[in-house]
Every structure is written in structure tokens, then in C-alpha cells.
């Protein structure tokens, strides 16, 4: 049995990294969540497996905070969401905010999703 990839065929992040198209930098960051149910936290969110996921446990908004230790340029955010699997729990809005610390974050991009089943690309920087 093979482990399903996080991304659809043709957009395998490892292949894109090998060609130099993208570089995964999430491992350089400190990740935190506004809430999570036991066994459904950051490790599951970042796992390269469609069978694992983050499940929030608290009031909205549900937040994923990604903090880099030094100034880091992020050009694109890749997110996989599947409405068919998650139904009402599927994310419907993505907001990208940047700043020097948690208290001076400013929204730079927002994306509304309607029943997604795809790898969503949110272009952060031109």
C-alpha cells in the first residue's frame, strides 16, 4: 500500500524542488495553531499524507501561525484542501499576513474557497 501524496499528480513538491521551481521552507519556521484536538496538530498538518490533517478545537477564527527566525521571503503558499473529505470543516478563507512580530501583522492577501479539492496556490509576492 502506498501513502497518498499531499498534492495532485503533476505537482509533486519533491519533483518541483528538484527542478528548482520551488523550495520548501516550512521546516525553517516555528509552527503554532490557535487550537487542535489531540493527535491532530502541527505534525499532522505538515505530514506528507492525505490521511492526516489538522483539526481545530475551539472558537473561530482557526489560525495557523508560521514564524521564521529571520526575515524570509515567501512567494507562494501551497495548501491542499478537500471539501469532499472534510465537508463543513473545510477551510473557506485563507488570509496571509506579514510582519516583524505577532502584534504588527498586516494582511497582504486573502483568498475565498468554495468546495475546494485541489492544491491551492496563494501568490504572496510578485
From TrEMBL:
GO biological process per UniProt: anaphase-promoting complex-dependent catabolic process; cell division; protein K11-linked ubiquitination
Q: CDD domains given for it?
A: APC10
Q: Which UniProt keywords apply?
A: Cell cycle, Cell division, Mitosis
This protein's GO cellular component annotations are: anaphase-promoting complex
- Domain spans labelled DOC: 1-126
Q: Which Gene3D superfamilies match?
A: Galactose-binding domain-like
Q: Which Pfam families match?
A: ANAPC10 (PF03256)
Known PROSITE patterns for this protein?
A: DOC
**Disulfide bond as UniProt keyword:** no
State the family named in the UniProt similarity comment for this chain.
Belongs to the APC10 family.
Q: What is this protein called?
A: Anaphase-promoting complex subunit 10
Amino acid at each position: 500500500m502506498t501513502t497518498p501524496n499531499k498534492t495532485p499528480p503533476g505537482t509533486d513538491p519533491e519533483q518541483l524542488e528538484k527542478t528548482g521551481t520551488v523550495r520548501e521552507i516550512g521546516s525553517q519556521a516555528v509552527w503554532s495553531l490557535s487550537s487542535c484536538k489531540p493527535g491532530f496538530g502541527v505534525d499532522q498538518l505538515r505530514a506528507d499524507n492525505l490521511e492526516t490533517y489538522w483539526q481545530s478545537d475551539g472558537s473561530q477564527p482557526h489560525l495557523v501561525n508560521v514564524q521564521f527566525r529571520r526575515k524570509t521571503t515567501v512567494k507562494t503558499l501551497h495548501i491542499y484542501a478537500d471539501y469532499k473529505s472534510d465537508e463543513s470543516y473545510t477551510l473557506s478563507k485563507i488570509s496571509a499576513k506579514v510582519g516583524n512580530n505577532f502584534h504588527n501583522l498586516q494582511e497582504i492577501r486573502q483568498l475565498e474557497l468554495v468546495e475546494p479539492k485541489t492544491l491551492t496556490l496563494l501568490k504572496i509576492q510578485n
